[in-house]
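Reopening this ticket.

The earlier resolution said the output was attached, but the attachment link was broken on my side. Pasting everything inline this time so it's all in one place.
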Amino acid sequence: MVEFVIGAIIVVLIFLTYAMVSKKKNASEIDQLDMRKTELLHRPVNEELTKVKRLNMTGQTEALFDRWRMEWDEIVTVDIPAVDEQLFASEEQAEKFRFGAAKKTNMDITNRLDQIEQKVNNILTELNQLIGSEEKNRAEGEEMHSRMREAKKRLLAHRHTFGKAAPVLEVQLDVLTGRFEKFADLTEDGDYLEARELLMEIQAEMDKMEHKMARIPLLMTEVNQTLPAQLSEIENGYKEMKQDGYMLDHLQIEKEVAELKEDLSRCREFLVKTEVEETEQIVSDTKDSIDFFYDLLEKEVMAKHHVLKDEGETGSIIDEISDFNSELLEETDVVKQSYQLDGEESDVPKRLKEEIYHLEKQYEILYGRIQEEKTAYSFLHDELKDIQARITELRKEQSGFAAFLQTLRKDELEAAEELHTLRTRVQYIARKVKQSNFPSLPDFYMDMTEEARIRLKETNTYLQEKPLNMKAVREKLEAAKGAIDHLANKTDELIEQVALSERMIQFGNRYRRTHPAIEEKLNEAEIAFRNADYSKALELCATAIDKVDSKGLKKFDAQLKEEQQ
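Inline output:
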């Protein structure tokens, strides 16, 4: 029974604690929501509405002011009291321990306050825009009035520079002036927002007007004077060049110039209507065309200069490479008596002769067309450049082949010199072996020596052949060099083996008296030495010494190093 009572007391205490904490938390939330409500109620909407009310308002501005005032009245008389009721309801719900309901009510209050804040922000933003529009309209209106006055003064002072476009510009300025007067009326009546929109349109149109007034005098000069003069210059130059014998029909300049003149006539109509953009595009295209025509005519002049200067020289060069190719053919026949050439190598002069023949025919046709003077020099120059490029290629091939023929003799001399060097090496190796006083030479070494001599003999045989096959000579020479290199290496190894085995046998003889067992092995080593089996002699002697003295080989190495030092 006592335990039940204690348990009940604990439950009650927990509940009371939870209730107190929840009430305190709800009270804190209510305070924060109430502070937010008060802050919204004290936002400076009334002050801004009072500022606007002092302005002279009509039309759109007056309608907006009425809407803002109604929205603010609704916030003060409807939305804020509704929030107060919800705050009171939240307090009652918490007193009755309906904490879940109180939490939901607080969330509803938060959402309502968010909506009220959005309304207040929108009202203040639009109010600021209205007040800002009134201030901007006043400042920018004065600037626009000044710009229009300056434009009229310029049109009056420099009327002659605008030609027939002057009356049109005057009318356009009058239209802008009328629109500006409407802007002033809207501002005076207090319709600031509509006035703002109109002023921005006027500013954009005034920018275009100023651009027109800046460009029209310049464009009129180009359309009426500069470009027609340049077109006439091109026409006159074209006619003079035709009289001088230039073939220019392919350029169709007369037709193109006539079309450009028509375009300039259209430009004059555009300028009267103050259509500057269309005029600027045509003027830009006309300038590009004029530059292009100048380039074409200049190209013809330069082409004629190069054709008349180079065509005779080109013919002489073709004769030169033809003569040189004949010399190459003769030299090739001579070389073939001494050297073997493969099919591709020997056919080079014949192939070049055929190509030179076709080049000569191409040049003859070109020369005839130059003399006829019925072809544009630019076309003739392009053909001449093609011929000159092919001449350069043929010369390069001829020089390469001539150098190849020269190289054959040079290769022969180098091969003979290298063969002499290899023979000298073999003689040196033989003297080196003789001076070493070998008891005898191993069979494999004799075979290697014979192999080297055979290789030298083969190389010499190929070098004496007529016609000479240099490719085969080079192969035989490389084989001889390889055999002699191998012989030289083996000779050095053999000399070292002989000297080492002889010294080791001498060293081993020290043990004959103290170690009779060594006698047999040393005798075998000496027999192998005399029979030229030097590697076996070394092996037998080393085994014998090591058997009677484990440190004997180390002693021998030490003695050998000491003697070498």
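Reporter confirms the inline version is readable. Residues 436-564 form one domain. The chain has a mean pLDDT of 78.
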